[in-house]
Amino acid sequence: MAAWDVVIVGGGSAGLSAALMLGRSRRSVLVVDGGRPRNAPAQHMHGVLGRDHTSPLDLLAAGRAELTRYDVVVESGEVADAAEVETDAGEPGGPSFEVVLDSGERHLARRLLVATGLRDELPDIPGLAEQWGRGVVLCPYCDGWEVRDRRIAVIASSAANAHQAQLMRQLSADVVFCTQGAVLAPAARSGLDARGIVVEDRRVIEVFADGGGRLRGIRLEDGSEWEADAVFVAPKAVPHDDLLRRLRARSMRQGGVDQVLVDEDGRTSVRGLYAAGNVVGAKSSVPWAMSSGSLTGAAINADLVDEDVRNALDARG
After folding, report:
1. Which residue intervals of the chain bear CATH 3.50.50.60?
2. Mean pLDDT of all residues in the chain?
3. Are 14 and 22 in contact (CB under 8 A)?
4. DSSP 108-146
5. Which part of the chain is the FAD/NAD(P)-binding domain (predicted)?
6. With a threshold of 0.85, does the pTM exceed it?
7. Measured between alpha carbons, how far is 268 from 250 in angstroms, rounded to an integer?
8. Residue 95 predicted with pLDDT over 80
């Protein structure tokens, strides 16, 4: 089995950023990349300093290319399983993990970082999934500027999405907020009305497009329609955290989802096991995911340095 300082599961913005920090610290790193980034349906990233309006896949390709100057290997594949490896009594070192890939390859790692991201569970509305990443989007900061002054529909998953509609009102005067049965507090409804946001209480039953596949609008339960140039939704963020759970990392119910808990350095409750990016945080920003991975990578290196000091003292003694 190949042995590494760190195995990183997930080659998105968080995983590659962690690999960069570790590689620059002369750590041997294996990144196992399943090739399914959350923002793959998007043609462009926005709000990423120096990379605004560029392809998210181009960003990842550039990141992988940068890593080639370091002792970092990026391998395509999936992790089938991972388990802690017991260290023999008196043997130097700390926690270690055995990682099994779907190809059957086995690797040993002193530390394991999971950066497998999440999937967006969309509302069950016909036509919506087909427009995801094009006419249907999530983030006002990521996609709002491109539809400024256009016709915008915001489809609620809960009453809290009234704030999403207010964010879009900053960018366009033509905004309709579809409650989907959510009960709005009087103050929220008054705030929407005060800024000229139409509140639509009839349910949206379809998102429809023209013959060329371009978004045209939304259809309501009584058959009436709203024409729209963009639809904003708030999908349920479901983390890809099966591996963390198999390793018995502690979790807590947050925002309707069981979320694996990490400290500010990305440490889970399992010694030597770290997590970074969207797998432990639903923020949709690429810069946030990059920051999370970078800081966690630095924390892992510091952890390994502490272990190297202990090993050196033991050997000296």
Report:
1. 2-119+237-315, 123-233
2. 93
3. no
4. EEEEEEE---EEEE----TTTGGGBTTTEE--HHHHSGG
5. 5-293
6. yes
7. 7
8. no
Query: Cα–Cα distance between 141 and 294 in angstroms, integer?
Result: 22
If one looks up domain 2-119+237-315 in CATH, what number appears? 3.50.50.60
Closest by CA position to 39, among listed 167, 112, 123, 142: 142
Tokens at 181, concatenated: 């049965």
HSE of 180, CA atoms in CB hemisphere, 13 A: 19
Give, in order, the Cα–Cα distances in Å from 315 to each of 9, 137, 143, 272.
32, 56, 56, 22
Q: What are the strands, taking DSSP E only, across the chain?
A: 2-9, 29-33, 72-76, 79-85, 96-101, 106-114, 118-121, 136-137, 152-155, 175-178, 198-200, 204-209, 215-220, 225-227, 230-233, 236-239, 251-254, 257-260, 273-275
CATH of domain 123-233: 3.50.50.60
Where does 17-127 show beta strands of DSSP type E? 29-33, 72-76, 79-85, 96-101, 106-114, 118-121
pLDDT greater at residue 36 or residue 131: 131
